[in-house]
């Protein structure tokens, strides 16, 4: 492929074109901003800007993924006859912001209109909303049709509901898409297998020496190698290993990754999706979320492929339903929840948590084997699967009382698939209960017993999961009760966990004191993270 052309070398081929900015998570031929346009109508603008790479200090591989995928997408569009004005990060004159680059491109091309698909993130959408007043041409903001549920769909679902339970939303999405639905014999459509949700069948702990089929890794081509060099130079102080890099950066590569998942991993994905095995970082997970979230793959096409595997007898219903639920259930739900709750969700701190994030979340230097392993895979691959994120890393942050904004910044920075719309509801609502239960019906707090049941981490850990208090006890054990005691006034009336406090009361003051003393001693030993890991200490000029 040819080297990308800088914006300064663009010579417009048309008079007063429609300018179509395509953002780094909109890399789809089916993006709504291109609908109805032809190459003779429009100039496509793509921008690598400093503000987006550094508003948190994203993992090096995440920046490589997005910039490389953008550059490849630009080349594909050019090959199809589109004029693409591509502004690389190091182009002379790059203003470092979307707004600045759109303004320059409007002047450069004497654009008649700016047409853009709505941003996925609140912060970017607020900037785009100001373009109409700042630019000398009209601005059209179109809905993102890659999602199944519109904003109006979610508002209708949420209206008059005290708790926005995902299960009921998921059922609506099943009915809307027809996925895993069948005629019940009486003229009504119902769920395949007569159950909407098979999560109870998808909680198997690891067994024996589990080794999953390898995930495809894609050799960096010349474009990706150029981006790797750029990131290594310009973002050297960002978290994470830069290489080896093997994420899909084109639709063809993403489809190859999907083929491998459906052929080799879907069958066992369901029962073992909550299992954690040291050194088996991916286990049976699809590893397709990065491709979904930047637009290389379409959510409905993946779900239809999964359903086809079930219909052909090649994958069990619990695995297929679990996979589909993650996409048209949870993924669609958190997107709707995000827009329904913003901007307040970003500042929510219902439990009043204010402890700094520990330094080991960046270094991995902790004797807690489960946490060390999850930080290791995060550093090496910009990835950890959802139970590692929720029940190890997130559980620790919850019961240790870590300040929500610090946790949000960490998750947003370190994971290649993390964008604010999906990260913030998961962290604020699901992980930290910071939203006061609008998303989750209970805090997902757990002692070491859960981790021991669902992983092989505890057997070789310095701490003993069977020991509840004192030196050598698994820190999750006293921290769990310390959290419950500290938040009793807020949580005792919760119908899902309120009975826990009866157990606490039966322990008596002496045993309670041992738990609280052990927890406090551990918390006092934590070294706060140094400044500058997630965000620059001073604004960049």
Explain this structure.
With 541 residues, the protein is mainly α. The protein folds into 3 domains: 7-142, HUPs (Rossmann fold, 3-Layer(aba) Sandwich); 151-212 and 265-341, Serine Threonine Protein Phosphatase 5, Tetratricopeptide repeat (Alpha Horseshoe), CATH 1.25.40; 360-525, DNA Cyclobutane Dipyrimidine Photolyase, subunit A, domain 3 (Orthogonal Bundle), CATH 1.10.579.10. It contains 22 helices and 7 strands. It has helices at residues 50-54, 60-79, 98-109, 122-129, 131-134, 151-158, 166-177, 222-234, 251-264, 266-269, 289-294, 299-311, 317-341, 360-363, 369-381, 386-399, 404-414, 420-431, 448-454, 476-486, 488-491, 500-525; strands at residues 18-21, 42-47, 83-87, 113-117, 139-142, 181-183, 189-191. The strands form 2 sheets. It has a 5-stranded parallel β-sheet, sandwiched between helices. It has a two-stranded antiparallel ribbon with strand order 6-7. Strand 6 and strand 7 form a beta hairpin. The chain is globular.
Keywords summarizing the entry:
541 residues; mainly alpha; Rossmann fold; Serine Threonine Protein Phosphatase 5, Tetratricopeptide repeat; DNA Cyclobutane Dipyrimidine Photolyase, subunit A, domain 3; five-stranded parallel sheet; two-stranded antiparallel ribbon; 7 strands; 6% strand; globular; disordered N terminus
């Amino acid at each position: 492929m040819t080297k990308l052309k800088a914006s300064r070398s663009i010579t417009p081929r048309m008079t007063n074109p429609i300018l179509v900015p395509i953002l780094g998570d909109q890399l789809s031929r089916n993006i709504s901003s291109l609908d109805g346009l032809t190459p003779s109508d429009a100039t496509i603008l793509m921008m690598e800007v400093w503000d987006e790479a550094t508003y948190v200090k994203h993992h090096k591989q995440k920046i490589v993924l997005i910039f490389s995928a953008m550059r490849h997408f630009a080349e594909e569009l050019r090959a199809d006859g589109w004029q693409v004005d591509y502004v690389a990060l190091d182009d002379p004159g790059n203003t470092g912001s979307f707004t600045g680059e759109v303004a320059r491109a409007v002047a450069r091309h004497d654009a008649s209109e700016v047409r853009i698909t709505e941003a996925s993130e609140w912060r970017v959408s607020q900037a785009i909303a100001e373009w109409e007043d700042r630019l000398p041409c009209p601005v059209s903001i179109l809905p993102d049709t890659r999602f199944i549920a519109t904003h109006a769909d979610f508002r209708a679902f949420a209206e008059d509901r005290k708790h926005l339970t995902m299960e009921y939303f998921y059922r609506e999405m099943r009915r809307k898409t027809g996925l895993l639905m069948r005629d019940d014999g009486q003229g009504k459509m119902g769920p395949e297998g007569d159950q909407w949700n098979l999560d109870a069948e998808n909680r198997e702990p690891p067994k024996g020496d589990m080794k999953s089929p390898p995930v495809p890794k894609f050799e960096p081509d010349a474009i990706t190698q150029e981006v790797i060099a750029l990131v290594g130079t310009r973002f050297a102080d960002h978290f994470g290993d830069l290489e080896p890099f093997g994420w899909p950066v084109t639709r063809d590569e993403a489809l190859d990754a999907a083929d491998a998942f459906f052929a080799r991993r879907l069958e066992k994905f369901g029962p073992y999706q909550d299992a954690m095995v040291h050194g088996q970082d991916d286990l049976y997970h699809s590893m397709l979320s990065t491709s979904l979230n930047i637009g290389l793959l379409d959510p409905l096409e993946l779900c239809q492929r999964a359903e086809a595997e079930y219909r052909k007898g090649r994958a069990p219903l619990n695995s297929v339903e679990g996979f589909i639920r993650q996409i048209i259930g949870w993924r669609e739900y958190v997107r709707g929840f995000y827009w329904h709750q913003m901007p307040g969700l970003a500042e929510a701190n219902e439990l009043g948590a204010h402890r700094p994030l520990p330094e080991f979340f960046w270094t991995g230097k902790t004797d807690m084997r489960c946490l060390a392993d999850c930080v290791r895979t995060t550093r090496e691959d910009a990835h950890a699967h959802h139970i590692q994120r929720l029940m190890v890393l997130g559980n620790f942050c919850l019961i240790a009382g870590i300040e929500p904004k610090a946790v949000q910044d960490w998750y947003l920075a370190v994971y290649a698939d993390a964008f604010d719309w999906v990260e913030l509801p998961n962290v604020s609502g699901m992980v930290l209960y910071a939203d006061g239960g609008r998303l989750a019906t209970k805090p997902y707090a757990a002692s070491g017993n859960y981790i021991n049941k669902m992983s092989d981490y505890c057997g070789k850990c310095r701490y003993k999961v069977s020991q509840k208090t004192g030196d050598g006890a698994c820190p999750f054990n006293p921290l769990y009760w310390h959290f419950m005691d500290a938040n009793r006034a807020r949580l005792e009336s919760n119908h899902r966990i309120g009975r826990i406090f009866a157990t606490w009361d039966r322990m008596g003051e002496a045993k309670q004191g041992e738990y609280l003393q052990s927890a406090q001693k551990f918390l006092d030993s934590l070294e706060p993270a140094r400044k500058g890991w997630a965000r620059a200490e001073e604004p960049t000029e």
